[in-house]
Amino acid sequence: MKRGLTNVYVKTDADFSTMIMESTMPLSHALRRSARNVYEFSLDGGLIMAPDTINIYDGLINTVKVAEQNGGTLVSVALQYPSSYRLKQIRGIPDRLEICFDRAYIKNVMRDKLVIIDSGHGGGDIGRRGYINLLEKNVVMHISGFMKSKIINTGARAVLTREKDISMGLKDRLEVAGLLEADLWISIHTRWDRVKNSCGAAALYHSKPGELLCRFILEELGKKLKLESKGVHEESFSKGFDAIGTTANIPFVTIEVCTISNPVEEGWLRSPVFKERTAQAITNGIVRYYDSNRHERDKNIFR
């Protein structure tokens, strides 16, 4: 049997992002850090699988690149944040070499944060309807449920404004953030356009701190799901803020995750995998936002 690498994939849980390399038999390896947050594995076996760049974007591991190198194999892992790691070799058929990257950095960034996730529409307000009859109110509730789990896995707390198919006014939705002294309020919607082939995601910020968050989230949706960005736009919630007696000093944003009026993207919205990946991409953007804030505070402290 030829000695070589047959498969590479990533498993993610709350504590670790684990890259698993499977081979026909044990392979000698060398590990080095080639750049900031980039690790390279040199393996002495050939490449039985096809060379590939695998997009992961699980919040810690961005990409895994697998290529042939001098009769052996080179596997490069690009991380979003610094991480410690541990190696584990599991003998068997196939043989497995695992590298477990610790997600502690993300938990430190998100510690003590409270995120309010608002599922748009509900009850008699169905929102927009796709060409194949998919209802926005149902889709966004599913994505919000995935988001709650993803946010909790970062070490933060998450609260949904609605967990059932009920009607809620804007005042009631916003009031949750004020009552719980939240750090962020994010409303999940889909985009709609009269032009049938129009596609992509858009973001609206209702308070100035939300503008940067919107940009990060659209970038992450583009990376993980290849969604076209329809841009970041400002939309005032001043009447809503006045009604609950609060100032908009935290991010209040609406994310239109993709275009339900596009038959292709409506089809994607029927997939639980797509909805789970959408939730992960939005969560990645939230972590990036708080990480950038932390670096900005550090700069000001040491100026």
UniProtKB/TrEMBL annotation:
Bilayer-crossing regions: none
Domain MurNAc-LAA: 174-287
InterPro entries according to UniProt: MurNAc-LAA_cat, N-acetylmuramoyl_amidase_3
MF (Gene Ontology): N-acetylmuramoyl-L-alanine amidase activity
Gene3D superfamilies: Zn-dependent exopeptidases
GO cellular component: outer membrane-bounded periplasmic space
Pfam name, any one: Amidase_3
Alphabetical keyword list: Hydrolase
Entry annotated with the keyword Hydrolase: yes
Top-level taxon of origin: Bacteria
Protein name (Swiss-Prot/TrEMBL): N-acetylmuramoyl-L-alanine amidase
Organism: Biomaibacter acetigenes
